[in-house]
Amino acid sequence: MLFSLSHGTRIVQDAAVPQPAALEADRAGGAAVLENPAAQLERLDVKPLSAVVDGATDLGPEAGSLRSMSTAPGAFRYLFRDAPGLPESPATLAALDQLADSMATEVTGPGDASLAPILTYFGQFIDHDITANTDREVATISEIAGDIAPMDRVQVEDKLDNLREGTLALDSLYGDSPGQGAFATKLAGLMRHPTFTDKMRLGVTADSGDGRPPLPADPAADLLRLGFLMDRGDITAAELNALPADLRANFVDADGPIRTRAIIGDGRNDENLLVAQLHVAFLRLHNRMVDLGNDFEEARRLTRFHYQWLVLNAFLPSICAGDVVDEVLATGAPLYAEFLADNPPADPAKMPMPLEFSVAGFRFGHSMVRGGYDHNRFFGRAVAGSGQIAPFASFVQLFQFTGSGKMPSPLTADPKTSLPGNWVIEWDRFVHAETPLRSARRIDTHLAPPLDDMINQPADPAVMKRLASRNLRRGYRLNIPSAQGVIEAINATGLYRPIPVLTPEQVSEGRDFLTAPGLDAATPVWFYVLREAEQVGGNHLGALGSHLVANTLIGLVVNDAGSYWNAKIGGHRWSPHLFQPSQPIDSLKAMLRFTGLLA
Q1: What phi, psi does 181 have (nearest 5°)?
Q2: Chain segment 503-518, per-residue pLDDT in tens
């Protein structure tokens, strides 16, 4: 379980101290990653469902979560640790800061994509499930303020740990990985419903005085929050005050217990209201699986399978170039398979994560964020019979109505600590790309203005409030290879059709300051991925971005022995169509309908 102290600055983890003897025994017994990922793409290592699964081996009750008991951290590794980086000089750093300034300027003309807004936050949800620590200030490694220089890559790999398991297994949802500290273990238990123990707990919205959207029909539309547990006596103020200082700061501030704090597997999923409401949707998905007669482990497995399937078959085809996704799926992501073979995990349950993906390639979603959304009938387009409060929900408000924002409404002051009913999302406004406020922004080299002055970030150092500057400086500090170096290395493998390279003129168009330090020919991956997408219209990633994202996400699923990819029923790979043929959960819309959140 991860507790977040301000996105981009610090994550706190409550973990038990591993015992060496037990650690070695667990590593010897774990088998969550395919032994030979480059060759064994069809191996079946786990019984995925109560139904008969062809060729599966029953690993026993302990295999339900397929997680090792080890507390060894996950690993960040370079896909191409010998690829050339950016030019190292004060001129490079100055140009990166100038580049960040130029990206913070709103694009002129149409900026709306043919992409639904839900994809922006599903991408964030995925990111929080598989990576943590590359956007944080890690002492001696990833500080980004002031005059910085690239770190030695060996030191980065040695000292920068992934605080997530690196698998699309929804640890961020369930938060119950073994080896946690006593308080995190207690919270993970409290996240389970006390009566219907196979279900996950949800929070109930507060009365806002002016109604709420019609869906869901029940009031379980918020996350579980600390105030509710304290009112029940499940957690006491004395218990919170006895926690170590860094852990206590997540739950107690100068005013006392932070009663709005969400009790979830990853605190970052309550940093803005949209990802928080998506987290609610996945909790409801688990509970619906229980309603169908499944116990906790079976419901978790079904939830994971649907999630993984949606990542590969709904998210990637929407975000990436279709020909790249098809090629990577057809070949089983051999780029990631070779990366995994070169970087076998110390803990077989924790997959290595490419730094080029985590630090750069997968941050394309920042350009899709809007400064405001048509959130619901109260904060968005009006609906007859409901009183519109504002024409849209602002970026600031979406951060206020979270645990850290403390939900500034008289009706949610103590003892009420839940989301006001009039802030429940109406998902029908987020699953289509209809109008400007109901579309994602184009994937391009500009960010919405609020991302240049992020309200939930500390003012010192000032760079933490400026997202473009943070991303560019972080990539430079962690010595991420240049985009051109990555393309050359991928092309040299011969695994795929050659990736075309943007010319220096295409990279630097409108930004001549990139030329003098050589950044037009040795370009930061994050900026290059956005520029490449901009070149093809901004409705999907270009070739390099598509390869980094598709190879990593598909590779994580293909090489996880417990994933849907490696489970077969009746001779067929598992799919939502085998689970529920008449109404398969084969899209994010279908998932929201299944959970009672979309008509």
Answers
A1: -70, 170
A2: 999 999 999 999 999 9
Q: What is the dihedral angle through the alpha carbons of 148, 151, 156, 161, rounded to the nearest 10 degrees? A: 0
Separation of alpha carbons 18 and 543, rounded Å: 42
Q: What is the pLDDT of residues 382-430, one digit of tens each?
A: 999 889 999 999 999 999 999 989 888 776 655 568 999 999 999 999 9
Measured between alpha carbons, how far is 529 from 505 in angstroms, rounded to an integer? Answer: 15
Name the DSSP letter for residue 556: H
The pair of three-digit structure tokens given for residue 32, joined into one six-digit string: 């969550």
User: Measured between alpha carbons, how far is 242 from 251 in angstroms, rounded to an integer?
Assistant: 11
DSSP string, 356-369: IIIIIGGGGGGGG-
- Hey, is 545 helix, strand or coil? helix
Within 10 angstroms of residue 231's Cβ, the number of other Cβ atoms is 13
Q: β-strand 353-354 against 74-77: which pairing, if any? A: parallel
552: left (phi over 0), alpha (psi -120 to 50) or beta: alpha
Q: Which amino acid is at 200?
A: M
Task: Give the DSSP H/E element, type plus range, for residue 193.
Answer: none
Whole-angstrom Cα distance, residue 22 to residue 31?
16
The DSSP H or E segment spanning 392 is none
Which segments of the chain have a pLDDT < 70?
A: 4-12, 15-72, 106-110, 136, 411-416
* CA distances to 28, 389, 391, 429 from 386, in Å: 60, 9, 13, 16
Number of H helices, E strands in the chain: 23, 11
Which value, in Å, is the radius of gyration of the alpha carbons in the chain?
A: 23
Least Cα distance to 273 among 412, 121, 388 occurs for 121
Structure tokens at 246: 């860094």
Nearest one of 67, 42, 63, 73 to 157, comparing CA atoms: 73
